[in-house]
Amino acid sequence: MEAIYIDKHYNLVIECKQGSKKACYELYRLYSKAMLNVAFRIVGDITEAEDVLQEAFVDAFAKLKDFRQDTTFGLWLKQIVVNRSINLLRKRKLELVELEDGHLENIANDESWDDEDLQYQVARVKEGMNQLPDGYRVVISLYLLEGYDHEEIGQILNISENTSRTQFLRAKRKLIEILNRKGQVS
């Protein structure tokens, strides 16, 4: 069975493809704030996130004629923003160390994140996440906030699924450590 995507902005995309600057502006207005948040969660710097956002929209509008609308415009744009953000981090010389399976003995295989035991404010968690090293912040953001699974994260970052899981577990531990130091986790 084929998936059917209902894009509530389908007509705006069509108008934009036909050269309507007003439609392009409307798409930008509708998606810019959410896409800025996506970029910021990945790159961790608002100025760089704004740059990523602008470049992503330039790319999207330049490639709009190739957009077949087999998915929603928002999902397509989000993928461009994520890819641009990852590319920026790579330019910053982000290095995620590929781990061999033999190096995973000290890491629990299925450690759970217990939301009920961690009563803290979202703003404090975001602040703690911004203190994580780039590799940790990217993986935890893609997994928890953007909803990607470890296989998808591995493909996006060009790392193995195990490395994604390992980075995620380490990121959680580091985030909890940061929040403990600030007295945010009981």
From TrEMBL:
Gene3D superfamilies: 1.10.1740.10, Winged helix-like DNA-binding domain superfamily/Winged helix DNA-binding domain (1.10.10.10)
Keyword DNA-binding set for record: yes
Domain RNA polymerase sigma-70 region: 27-93
CDD domains the record matches: Sigma70_r4 (cd06171)
Signal peptide: none
Coiled coil: none
Keywords of the record: DNA-binding, Sigma factor, Transcription, Transcription regulation
Entry-linked SUPFAM superfamilies: Sigma2 domain of RNA polymerase sigma factors, Sigma3 and sigma4 domains of RNA polymerase sigma factors
Keyword NADP belongs to the record: no
Domain RNA polymerase sigma factor 70 region 4 type: residue ranges: 127-175
Gene Ontology biological-process entries: DNA-templated transcription initiation
Pfam family, one: Sigma70_r2
Source organism superkingdom: Bacteria
GO molecular function, one term: DNA binding
Family: Belongs to the sigma-70 factor family. ECF subfamily.
Protein name per its UniProtKB record: RNA polymerase sigma factor
